[in-house]
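debug: dumping io for the single-chain case to check the tokenizer round-trip. Nothing else runs in this session.
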Amino acid sequence: MDIKRMTARVASIEEVVNGKFIKKIGFESNYILTMYGRKISRARVMGVIVDIYKSADNKYAAVTLDDSSDTLRAKVFVNITMFDNFKVGDLIDMVGKVREYNGEIYLIPEILRKCNANNEILRMLELKKVHIEQMDKIRKLRSLQKQSSDLAELKVLGSKSGIIEEDVEGILEADELIQEDTEEKTQESSEVKDKILDLIDKIDEGSGAEYQKILSQAGVKEDKVDGAIQELLEEGVCFEPKAGMIKKL
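debug: decoded output
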């Protein structure tokens, strides 16, 4: 059985770390599915080294890259000397295999080299071109979906429009994940709002419930509490009799 080596795909660090890691079985390569529907098994990223770490026993090393969109770690567990010629502040072009552990997406580096500011400008232009081309593929596929919803037929139609099978699959898979994520967030928001309404009933002694008491008893992150309260106010379910107080209508 021939094992196809996945092509390294140029990406921003933000696209890589915000992708969903897909673990495959057998000889198929694991990959991340990005928000743009790109499947990336081997990523090519460029960034400035902001941190270097080596373990005391010399069995592990990691560098952290920053490309201004986000940060990403590259880890080595055997050949840690591959980082010896680099230092904090160096601009690095890196190709590596995408991996995930404990929710962190990172790279196992295969190739890395120092770059200069001109390389960085060229990479920014390349990333812009990639983004434009991918958005064009998404628009074309949206149009093709009006003709057919069958995956096999969409692949054929996509091929005629210059969209490879991998991108057809990735875009459709990303759509499903976005929909699932939206549904999960909607359900979570509904549950938080119900919890807040219950707390208001419990805390309110006539003049409303103090925001700080709601926050301390909700057991939910502050940004989610704030978002839920804002929705309740906009929906007209609650109002603010005065600053810092929330009351049900």
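debug: round-trip ok. The longest strand covers residues 42-54.
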